[in-house]
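Hi W.,

Here's what went into the run:
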Amino acid sequence: MVLKIEHLTGGYTGIPVIKDINLEIQPGEALGIIGLNGAGKSTTIKHILGLLRPQKGKIVLNSVELIKQPTEFKRQIAYIPEVPVLYEELTLKEHLELTMMSYQLDEKKAWKRANELLKMFRLDDKLDWMPIYFSKGMKQKVMIVTAFLADTDLLVIDEPFTGLDPLAVSNLIDLIKKAVAQKKMILMSTHILADAEQAISNYAVLNNGKIEVIGSLTDIRKHYGLNESDSFDKIYQILNEEQRHA
Ligand SMILES: Nc1ncnc2c1ncn2[C@@H]1O[C@H](COP(=O)(O)OP(=O)(O)OP(=O)(O)O)[C@@H](O)[C@H]1O
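Here's what came out:
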């Protein structure tokens, strides 16, 4: 089990946004992608989800190559997007059923898991609700519940912490830690480093579409000359300075 991204170059037009990205995530590893606005985090994620076609390079998950076997590849991934995507005409219960069907889950086991997740995020009494009645945070929680319900080898999470109440943030951090303990792979893009630090130990720093450094929190701190007492957020000031002088 491993996610391998090799020499990935891509973007939206002929001009590449991300350049020669090399990443590997092992089972039981949570990797954070961090970088300034526009660094290419979401673009990298869109490539991993198969929403953009690479100009160069390949993405392989558990020996399945995205370009060659897209359906098999995508079935191994669950995704929590930055902006919740829900079907306006489906109830919460129907969203869960759709997830169970799409990922071919055992219904009995899946409902047990779904009920635990719903309770955790205080959605257990809202099964008949349509998305129109959900607040922004509630919609985000539905995305979290369906992603963790899918129980895939790889979970891709794009900026999950904004808009969640502190209780939901802490529940999400616990779920990520448990998934890591169960040897799942997590890839998460975020700017909220104080929250990320609680669940994520390895980071890739993207700068202008390229990976500047990849490693443990200690490695990253060392690379940017940060002391243990410095806030991890200081990285953003350094990246900004680097860009201004590039
Ligand atoms: N749909 C699009 N079409 C063309 N260019 C895009 C599109 N989406 C993003 N870009 C460009 O790609 C570059 C990287 O954007 P991306 O969204 O990957 O950054 P990011 O690191 O996720 O930023 P943020 O922290 O703001 O979410 C930016 O220069 C952006 O303008």
